[in-house]
Amino acid sequence: MNFYPGFKIIPQSNPIGFTYGEGVFGPVPEIRRLDDIRASLADPACGGPEELYAISMDVGCEEDRKDMERRNLLYGAVVYGAGVIGKEPVRSQGHSHGISPSCGYSTPEVYEIWDGEAIVYMQESGEDDPGNCYAVRAKAGDVVIVPPGWVHATINADVSRNMCFGAWCVRDYGFEYEAVRSHGGVAYFPYVEKKDILWRKNHKYQGGSLVEKTPREYTEFGISKGVPIYTQYQENKEKFSFITKPQDYKRIWEEFQP
Q1: Considering the domain boundaries, does residue 4 fall inside one?
Q2: What is the domain count for the chain?
Q3: How many CA atoms lie within 13 A of 223 on its CB side?
Q4: What are the two backbone dihedrals, phi and then psi, of residue 239, each rounded to the nearest 5 degrees?
Q5: In the structure, what pLDDT confidence band is assigned to residue 207 with cuts at 50, 70 and 90?
Q6: N or C end: fewer C-beta atoms under 10 angstroms in the chain?
Q7: How many CA atoms lie within 13 A of 253 on its CB side?
């Protein structure tokens, strides 16, 4: 990997997934397949690789496991395969975070790209008017935060190679898919054109403009650039309380810009 995530986790290509080093816990990765996301693609009947990406939810160092559970923090790792699905890059279908029982609030997610190049797509709403839409193009070492309640999807921006990332989220997370599926996908479909990623409006939405940008620094949350977000948790166990208690940061979320 181009960026060391702060603990020994190794992405695999064949089969797609992860292996864990000494002192690291993690599950058998779950595989997401093309048939799982067809309803949210521009061309639901398209062809492409059968296995799109692998997810390992709840990974980390054994020494941190009890603390992560006590704080209701969960760290996940995902590896995306190369290739295209129809004219689109390998991507997730898109969802928002439901209300977590622990805090009574939709919760944010903090992404960190480890290898390859990703686009974290997000839109304010899954309703007919999606509001502001953003495509944040991130490389190894970049951090991207998705705020509570926003619809988001992750895209492999370099179809010639695998991409992987880690993310902090709340342990009692819940994914909401219905709004996206009822619109046949997110408000803008990515497609591959001469190795670049371009965008096509999903006309089942009304309104909503897309802004393409690079990641910014999240000084409001004290995120340190270039330091693995897992290491930042180890150094300050309270740093990511904005994930598990987003209601305490309501003013920041109201003014949030990706």
Answers
A1: no
A2: 1
A3: 25
A4: -55, -35
A5: confident
A6: N
A7: 19
Are residues 72 and 172 in contact, defined by beta-carbon separation less than 8 angstroms? yes
> pTM of the prediction?
0.96
Q: Return left, alpha or beta for 73; rule: phi > 0 is left, psi -120 to 50 is alpha, else beta.
A: beta
Could you tell me the strand order of the sheet in which 163-170 lies? 30-33, 51-57, 73-80, 163-170, 109-115, 143-146
Domain residues for the domain of 165 are: 9-254
Beta partners for residue 155, in sequence order? 91, 119
Of the candidates 104, 234, 106, the residue with the CA atom closest to the CA atom of residue 176: 106
For residue 201, what are the β-bridge partners?
188
Q: How many residues does the chain have?
A: 258
Sorting pLDDT into bands at 50, 70 and 90, what band is 208?
confident
Average pLDDT for 142-153: 97
